[in-house]
Amino acid sequence: MQDKLEDFIKENKEQFDTEVPRAEVWNKIQKGLDKNDKATGTSTLWFWKVAVAVLLIAVAYLGSEKYFGADVNKESTAMEEFKELEIFYTQMISDKKTKLSEEVEAGEYFSFLEADIQSLDQNYEELKTTFENGQETPQLKSALVHLLKQKLYLIEKQLEILEETKSKTSEGVSSL
User: Fold this and answer.
1) Does residue 154 contact residue 117 with C-beta atoms inside 8 Å?
2) Cα atoms in the Cβ-side hemisphere of radius 13 Å centred on 127
3) pLDDT digits 0-9 by tens, 22-76
4) With contact defined as beta carbons under 8 Å apart, do 89 and 149 qualify?
5) Is the Cβ–Cβ distance between 89 and 152 less than 8 Å?
6) Which of 113, 52, 16 is nearest to 6 (CA)?
7) 81 and 141 in contact (C-beta within 8 Å)?
8) What predicted TM-score, i.e. pTM, was given to this entire model?
């Protein structure tokens, strides 16, 4: 339908261009347009300035919170979690070592177990230094906990071996 209208206007264009409004009508229209442009432009410009200012403040706040506030909380939380785990495993290791030293006579303590524990301790201290110097990654924390678990596992296995040896010795003595 619009195509027919366009065709009609193109065909009869000369008939539409015959009338010209008076000069004072054009002056009134021009004055009205000038007023609307100035009023609309000023209010729109003011609105955009405020919107940009609010946006910049919001971005600055969120950016600073993300990079400064959240990282400090994560680091302190990661360090606190690690300290709690370290205390827990260190206490368990200490208890098991005490029990092991009570079970084993002074001359019978196995040197290979002590060498393995010293190796684990050395690796643990190196990783712990890295962890405490700002590289508080979950992988590093996991590796530190794993070393503590390995140390605990070695001591527990040694205690199991001693218990088995004691039970075999007591069975041999009781059968005599």
Assistant:
1) yes
2) 20
3) 788 888 888 877 766 555 556 677 888 888 888 888 888 888 766 665 555 555 6
4) yes
5) yes
6) 16
7) yes
8) 0.48
